[in-house]
């Protein structure tokens, strides 16, 4: 399960050691062979930050979709969702983070019902 979750596409061919410290990297040759062996045309994956919310790689054999805008409140990235229609045609919905509201003042006074 760890390898499935943490492995990332890479520009280099074959398998490699992931800089994340878990999983592996895989090249276009690996994604093409996987798709061919399994009768697939696309690997849709997540769990990797991409700035525009989604990112194609390996000649559109792999797409990464990341749905957490402004990850960790500091990355400034968009988020995206993939939408499939009845014929399995896909489109992407991108969205920006919501503006951050100021936190309301929190009183430190003990409520009466605790006295």
TrEMBL record:
An example molecular function term from Gene Ontology annotations: protein serine/threonine phosphatase activity
SMART domains found in the cross-reference section: PP2Ac
Transmembrane segments: none
Entry keyword annotation includes Secreted: no
Keywords assigned by UniProt, alphabetized: Hydrolase, Manganese, Metal-binding
Chain ranges of the Serine/threonine specific protein phosphatases domain: 1-99
Protein name: Serine/threonine specific protein phosphatases domain-containing protein
Source organism of the structure: Dictyocaulus viviparus (Bovine lungworm)
């Amino acid at each position: 399960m760890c390898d499935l979750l943490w492995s990332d596409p890479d520009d280099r061919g074959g398998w490699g050691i992931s800089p994340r410290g878990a999983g592996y990297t895989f090249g276009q040759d690996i994604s093409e062979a996987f798709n061919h062996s399994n009768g697939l045309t696309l690997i849709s994956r997540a769990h990797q930050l991409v700035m525009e919310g989604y990112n194609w790689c390996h000649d559109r054999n792999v797409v990464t979709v990341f749905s957490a805008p402004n990850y960790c409140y500091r990355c400034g990235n968009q988020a995206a969702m993939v939408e499939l229609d009845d014929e399995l045609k896909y489109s992407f919905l991108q969205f920006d983070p919501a503006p951050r509201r100021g936190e309301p003042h929190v009183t430190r006074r003990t409520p009466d019902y605790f006295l």
